[in-house]
């Protein structure tokens, strides 16, 4: 493996840098396929512009990642390519969903790129992830502004601004054994709102994918995930409803009736796997900001259910021979034989 000179020293990539670059490449090549298909079926000019921008960013990242892998003499991951997208297939989503997809994908990627930056040490790798954050932040802003302009987004709930600073005086703030629980805190509402959007994206994807996949086991997996997402959405909506707060809109009507697959079953199954990871990340963040016991217990149960479902998906990928192996640490026991 080649090394990068920095401050007079030769620096090879660390395990964390390898892992983040590898993971980023798999995700970017998947998005490249998704945006390629979306662009063949979009009608709205502004949404088309945003899809083109998202696609250009993805291709830019793929090019840079290939340069890094080549320089480091690291085999370029297989990822996804032309065989995983059917350009001639009809649309399975509306233009409105494309816009929602861009925004939600940008939001989760901001989390992922920020994490990648904090576990990178080499200057060129930090610079790459820093540029990725700038790219995706601008895309998030543009897509959010477009959704607002088109009236396609329900803002997070408004609550009264406190008139004074207050401190918690009783454990009832955490949990009441008898009677109604206190109203949700702003930090808890944030978790509800984000996780509703995340689950609705996943649900819509699995509704669409369940219509077009032909393998029985993958179809059953998609239907199971659809129902799990619906269950989670209902639980989260009920928490908001009890405090008379609005929930984000459903995106199920933006799934069209096509039964023609626009992507390979490998890509669709892997996409759901990535969505599961994003959902677990969102719930984890939400859990850290939640103080009410009843909400924490519900989130913990949802995390357990999603983790089991995610594991089922990984097992399916392995059975199909589709799970690409990330870089591994040396097996010292094996080498010592």
Tags for this entry?
2 domains, 9 helices, Ferritin, 337 residues, single chain, mainly alpha, two-stranded antiparallel ribbon
CATH level-4 homologous superfamily of the largest domain: Ferritin, core subunit, four-helix bundle
Q: How many structurally independent domains? A: 2
Give the SSE string.
EEHHHHHHHHH
**Uncertain regions: pLDDT < 50 for 5+ in a row?**
none
Briefly characterize the structure.
The two termini are 25 Å apart. It is built from nine helices and two strands, in the order ββααααααααα.
Give a verbal description of the structure:
This protein has helices spanning 15-39, 45-71, 95-118, 123-149, 186-212, 216-242, 265-288, 293-320, 332-335; strands at 4-6, 9-11. It starts with a strand and ends with a helix. It has 2 domains: 14-149, Ferritin, CATH 1.20.1260.10; 183-320, Up-down Bundle (Ferritin), CATH 1.20.1260.10. The longest helix is centred in the C-terminal third of the chain and has 28 residues, at 293-320. The chain has 9 helices and 2 strands, in the order ββααααααααα. It has a two-stranded antiparallel ribbon with strand order 1-2. It is mainly α.
């Amino acid at each position: 493996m080649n090394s990068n000179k920095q401050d007079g020293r030769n620096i090879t990539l660390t395990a964390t840098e390898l892992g983040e670059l590898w993971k980023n490449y798999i995700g970017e090549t998947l998005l490249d396929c998704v945006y390629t298909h979306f662009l063949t079926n979009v009608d709205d000019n502004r949404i088309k512009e945003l899809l083109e921008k998202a696609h250009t960013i993805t291709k830019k990242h793929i090019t840079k990642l290939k340069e890094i892998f080549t320089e480091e003499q690291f085999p370029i991951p297989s990822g996804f390519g032309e065989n995983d997208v059917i350009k001639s297939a009809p649309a399975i989503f509306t233009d409105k969903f494309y816009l929602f997809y861009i925004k939600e994908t940008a939001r989760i990627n901001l989390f992922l790129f920020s994490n990648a930056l904090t576990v990178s040490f080499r200057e060129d790798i930090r610079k790459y992830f820093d540029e990725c954050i700038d790219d995706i932040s601008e895309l998030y802003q543009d897509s959010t502004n477009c959704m607002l302009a088109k009236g396609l987004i329900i803002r997070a709930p408004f609550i009264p601004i406190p008139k004074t600073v207050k401190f918690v005086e009783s454990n009832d703030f955490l949990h009441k054994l008898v009677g109604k629980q206190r109203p949700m805190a702003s930090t808890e509402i944030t978790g509800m709102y984000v996780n509703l959007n995340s689950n609705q994206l996943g649900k819509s994807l699995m509704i669409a994918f369940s219509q077009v996949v032909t393998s029985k086991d993958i179809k059953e997996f998609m239907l199971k995930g659809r129902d799990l997402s619906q269950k989670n959405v209902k639980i989260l909506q009920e928490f908001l409803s009890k405090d008379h707060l609005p929930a984000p809109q459903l995106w199920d009507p933006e799934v069209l009736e096509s039964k023609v697959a626009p992507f390979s079953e490998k890509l669709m199954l892997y996409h759901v796997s990535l969505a599961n990871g994003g959902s677990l990340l969102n719930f984890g963040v939400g859990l850290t900001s939640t103080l009410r016991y009843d909400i924490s217990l519900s989130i913990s149960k949802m995390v357990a259910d999603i983790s089991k479902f995610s594991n089922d998906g990984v097992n399916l990928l392995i059975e199909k021979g589709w799970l690409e192996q990330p870089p591994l640490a040396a097996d010292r026991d094996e080498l010592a034989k």
